[in-house]
User: Fold this.
Amino acid sequence: MSRISVLLILLWAGFLSTFAQERPDSAAVRMLREDFGVEFTQGNTVRLFHTGQEKFDDLFHEVRRARSSIHLEYFNFRNDSISSLLFDLLASKAAQGVKVRAVFDGFGNSSNNRPLKANHLDALRRRGIEIVEYDRVRFPWINHAFYRDHRKFVVIDDSLAYVGGMNVADYYINGKEEFGDWRDIHMALTGPVVDQLQQIFVGFWNKVAEQRIDLEPERSPLAVAECDTDTAFKPLPLCAEDAMIGVTDRVPNMSPKIIRRTFLTLIDNAHTQIQLINPYFIPGRKIMRALKRALKRGVDVQIIVSDKSDIPVTPRVVERNVYRLMKRGAQVYMYTGGFHHSKVMMVDSCVAYVGSANLNARSLRHDYECNLLLCDRQSTAALQRVFETDKRERCYRLTPEVWRTYSRSRRFAGWFYQILTPFL
Assistant:
């Protein structure tokens, strides 16, 4: 056999192996079904919010229309004007007979500069809001560092859910003085996926509140005519009307690897492109190696991270990590339009992974997290438009030349603080 024939055979074999590689969405669906028992549902609608104003306007509108139950689970409710407005609205619904339940994380509460205190909680309970704190931080403190509830979602009337990266705080609308606007992604969902989110809330509520509420829809005497329909409000258009969605709920000691495995499966099965935004880009070795493998295969890897952060030390470690990938061929964009708190990844324009999980040790190894796998091109395209707009209008590209303009102390800090990666 001639050398040319051998070369042609090898080239053809390489083409076939590439062509035969499983699509990232189908690979992730198969893995989640077989290894974690995740049930994927179809017929879901998706609306996308990429500002706090959009999310809270929509949420407040739907809370006013609630007829039976409102369930809220957040890392924290910052005790400021937006939470005050929300609690006033929730109290009015409770007075109408709607069951209002809220749970928040003790560490998330104590770590923000406007925490809910015991007198605030007592006042809310007197107004009919059932609110509980998960694992309140107590001395000696260190034993409360892990297994925090970092999920952020709301379920209304067992028919509508909100999921994403936003807590409840003014800075999602007004930004922060130290870095400007707070950029984030959240979604509103209807369809069978809402039942799954309701199950997550009810299970966690029963654990924390030590109650035994069930999953049957709670009925209220409140009629449609009694609800505030707010006819002047115009909701954002749907970005998907028949989306296939899988819920990946990370529960410590039960499904600890589900989110990391999903990231790895999507990255390892990417054919053409990975677009990723994450505020605390401090992945472990396995995800870093997977991204390097994708680059070696010729996948177009694009990453947006923030130039500034709300947590000290983190920006330098993030810079160091994306610099290492940039040297391997990744396109890295430093966001300067404020702080990008979004946690999203789009792969091959066909699947997106969105939710509360950061790419750091806390989210991937310790905390309760909830991410959605959107096997839907329309939703993915909507998220890609956000990515492209931010990349074009609010970022500068990290290049070797730009890296050399950073001071030696800044670059050294990124190298030195790598030792803190397991704790960030």
